[in-house]
Amino acid sequence: MEYAFKAASSASGLTGIALRGKDTCVVVTQRKVPDRLVVPSSVSHVFNITSKIGCLATGMIADCHSAIQRARYEAADFEFKYGYSIPPAVLAKRMADIAQVNTQSASMRPLAVVMMIVGVDDEKGPQVLKVDPAGHFLPFKGTASGAKEQEATNFLEKRVESIPEYSFDETVRTAIVCLGSVLGSDFRGSEIEVAAVQGVQGKFRSLTEEEIEGHLNAIADEND
Fold first, then answer.
1. Of the chain's two ends, which shows fewer C-beta atoms within 10 Å, N or C?
2. 3-state secondary structure at position 131
3. At 69, phi and psi to the nearest 5?
4. Residue 221: exposed, middle, or buried by beta-carbon count in 10 A (0-12, 13-18, 19+)?
5. Nearest to 49 by CA among 25, 15, 32
């Protein structure tokens, strides 16, 4: 189990941030293309589970894909059975239950992946939920995973009072600033992934490189 946690935080070498604003959920992570011959857009740790629920998965990429595939199946199965879209918290609980089963016998390997599931619930509003390899899950105002998890958590803790009142732009920019702060470097729009969902009717989508550049420029202007 300890190996799974270690692999989930260090295998990809990435740091991921998830943040919950007033009516918005945002995830931000690095985009590391392993080889110049690889198509950059194919390298991603951000996934759609349904049109309105997204996930940032850090850890071993093959395990990430397996977990996401199962999450999509569970979400589709729930909607088929009950006639409405699965709430983010129900999906997180289901994925945590499945992860916990893998800890019960020696013949099964826990998936080395930490899932940060985000979505806007019809009743509860924006939700950020984190599921770990042991089957433990909790809702957060803001959280991080990966190589620099502790540093990012410290950064977010200082802003914990104001985070729930953030607008869409404030939420996105705080998440980007947090990632830049813990990595100790500036980055271009092509070097990070940003995805968000806004409002009950909003769709979970990745921001384009131009949109990310716009936010980076706004952050630079605020700092000047």
1. C
2. strand
3. -60, -45
4. exposed
5. 25
**3-state class (DSSP) for residue 11:** coil
Neighbours of 99 (CB within 10 A): 23
Take residue 39 and report the two structure tokens written for it: 């198509």
Q: What is the pLDDT along the chain (224 residues), one digit of tens a residue?
A: 888 888 888 888 899 999 999 999 999 999 988 888 999 889 999 999 999 999 999 999 999 999 999 999 999 999 999 999 999 999 999 999 999 999 998 888 999 999 999 999 999 999 999 999 999 999 999 999 999 999 999 999 999 999 989 999 999 999 999 999 998 888 888 899 999 999 888 899 999 999 999 999 999 988 87
Q: How far is residue 5 from each of residues 2, 11, 31, 147, 156, measured CA to CA in Å?
A: 5, 10, 21, 11, 22
